[in-house]
Design a protein that fits this description.
Blueprint (H helix, E strand, L loop, with lengths): L1 E4 L5 H10 L1 E4 L5 H7 L5 E4 L7 H5 L6 E4 L9 H6 L3 E4 L5 H16 L2 H9 L17 E5 L3 H12 L3 E5 L5 H9 L2 E3 L2 H7 L2 E4 L13 H6 L4 E5 L8 H9 L4 E6 L19 E3 L8 H19 L3 H4 L5 E2 L5
Parallel strand pairs: 1-2, 1-3, 3-4, 4-5, 6-7, 6-9, 7-8, 9-10, 10-11, 11-12
Antiparallel strand pairs: 5-13
Bound molecules: D-malate.
The site of D-malate has 9 residues, from loops.
Length: 324
């Protein structure tokens, strides 16, 4: 197949794809380049960092398959792709554990000032007396979006002795009981916001969740609490977050793996604050997980070529309706 590899994936998978297909590599290309690169492509493989807009999709008359090497669908016009008869498939399963583990890395970095301590020590300082922080055990861990990733974070929090609370967009007794089995109590958005010592965001970005954490939500957070965003940059209003972190309000610190503006050369304004931990969208970047995602991408393309893709898709991989 004629494949555009629009994002970097596991090196072994790239090798396999290049052996089996006609692959053009163009990682994180802007729209202006994509419209040219897509001209003769039949499949595109992508992650975050690139946008498959309607214009980009329309520039590929032979496009038949779009493969998301991960779970987020906020950077593709899914409705347009489906309307054009392009099949959209994603590989969501293997990214839950690495994102949950990074959430914990960020929780610990924030609570125990790990990155700040590291920076100060390298500068020759020994400010032990100023580097205290709260225990996680005994604190409330709040999860906005207690789905595949969020419920895993809740389970990990419960194992650390935290009280885990979560909310979802479609609560039901079945969801409540599945979460309870993982040590997470299902409640509503406002309870999670107001009672959490550590508020973690694990929800997709769409028109309903854009800036769901705004100035109003930040003002309602528990005094002395922390915010962790590993979901998508757009779910937090970062200007409001900057104001909350500098305005002496309840929020003690924030950690963000995802940002409203991402990419090489972008310097986040929040980076100037000592109570902020920032990472460059590395949630899914555990080697083991990337290897599994890469293997699945190679397999899915093979299945497509053999005409057996539909039969072999896991239920969560098939994208057959716009995300709600
Ligand atoms: C995902 O949605 O799977 C993650 O954000 C991984 C990524 O594309 O970087």
């Amino acid at each position: 197949m004629k494949v555009l590899l629009a994002s970097s994936i596991d090196p072994a998978a790239i090798e396999a794809l290049e052996r089996e297909h006609d692959v053009v590599r163009a990682f994180n290309a802007p729209e202006a380049d994509l419209v040219t690169l897509m001209a003769d492509r039949e499949a595109v493989i992508f992650r975050s960092g690139v946008t498959l807009s309607a214009r980009v999709l329309d520039s590929a008359p032979n496009l038949a398959l779009v493969l998301r090497a991960g779970s987020g669908l906020d950077n593709i016009d899914v409705a347009h792709a489906l309307a054009r008869g392009v099949q959209v498939v994603r590989v969501p399963g293997s990214s839950a554990q690495p994102v949950a583990e990074l959430t914990f890395a960020l929780l610990l970095s924030l609570a125990r000032k790990v990155t700040l301590a590291d920076r100060l020590l390298r500068e020759g300082h020994w400010p032990k007396a100023t580097l205290g922080g709260p225990l996680l055990a005994g604190k409330t861990l709040g999860i906005i979006g207690a789905g595949r990733i969020g419920s895993r974070v809740g389970e990990m929090g419960a194992a650390w002795g935290m009280r885990a609370l979560g909310c979802v967009d479609r609560p039901s007794p079945a969801v409540a009981s599945a979460l309870a089995g993982r040590g997470v109590t299902l409640t509503d958005f406002d309870t999670v916001v107001t009672e959490s010592d550590f508020l973690c965001l694990h929800l997709p970005l769409d028109e309903h969740t854009h800036h769901i954490v705004d100035a109003g939500v930040l003002a309602r957070m528990k005094p002395g609490s922390f915010l962790i965003n590993v979901a998508r940059g757009g779910v937090v209003d970062e200007d409001a977050l900057h104001a909350a972190l500098t305005g002496g309000e309840s929020l003690l610190g924030a950690a963000l793996d995802v940002h409203e503006r991402e990419g090489e050369g972008v310097v986040p304004r929040l980076g100037a604050l000592p109570n902020v931990v920032l990472t460059p969208h590395i949630g899914a970047m555990a080697w083991d997980s990337q290897r599994l995602i890469g293997e699945r991408v190679v397999e899915l393309l093979r299945s497509y070529e053999h005409g057996s893709l539909d039969q072999e898709l896991e239920p969560e991989e098939a994208v057959d309706a716009p995300p709600t």
